[in-house]
Amino acid sequence: MSDQVPSHVVDRLIQLYCEWRSECWDVRSAYEQFAAATPDDRPLAYAAYRAALDREESAAGLYAQEIERIECDDVDGRRAVAQR
Q1: How far apart are the C-alpha atoms of 58 and 21, rounded to whole Å?
Q2: What is the mean pLDDT of the chain?
Q3: How far apart (Å, rounded) are the C-alpha atoms in residues 81 and 59?
Q4: How far apart are CA 28 and CA 35, in angstroms?
Q5: pLDDT digit string (tens) for 42-72?
Q6: d(C-alpha 37, C-alpha 41), whole Å
Q7: For the residues of 61-82, what is the DSSP string, one character each?
Q8: Beta-strand relationship, 74-75 and 78-79
């Protein structure tokens, strides 16, 4: 049995990781904008920050699901990872 993960699976993991990290940077940016907002602009800036958090959480979840699928499920009809 091979422990090697197929390249298309690795490519998907890298894509999902990059998307998650991009969302992390968006959260940081949105927080900075919220922290610098004037009192009148804070409700909208906070809403943007919360939306960025939601997108980051979603991206992190997709990345985690893909890793779990690789660890637990068959990829191309065989175990992708035999053991941790």
Answers
A1: 12
A2: 88
A3: 23
A4: 10
A5: 999 999 999 999 999 999 999 999 999 888 8
A6: 6
A7: HHHHHHHHHHHHSEETTEES-S
A8: antiparallel
Per-residue pLDDT, averaged over 12-40, amounts to 98
pLDDT for the residue 5: 75
Round to the nearest angstrom and report the end-to-end CA distance of the chain.
Answer: 15
CA neighbours closer than 13 Å in the CB half-sphere of residue 41: 12
> Looking at the DSSP assignment, which residues form a beta bridge with residue 74?
79
Question: Model's pTM, two decimal places?
Answer: 0.77
Cα–Cα distance for residue pair 54/26, rounded to 1 Å: 11
- Length of the chain equals 84
State which amino acid sits at residue 17.
Answer: Y
Residue type (1 letter), 69: R
Amino acid making up residue 10? V
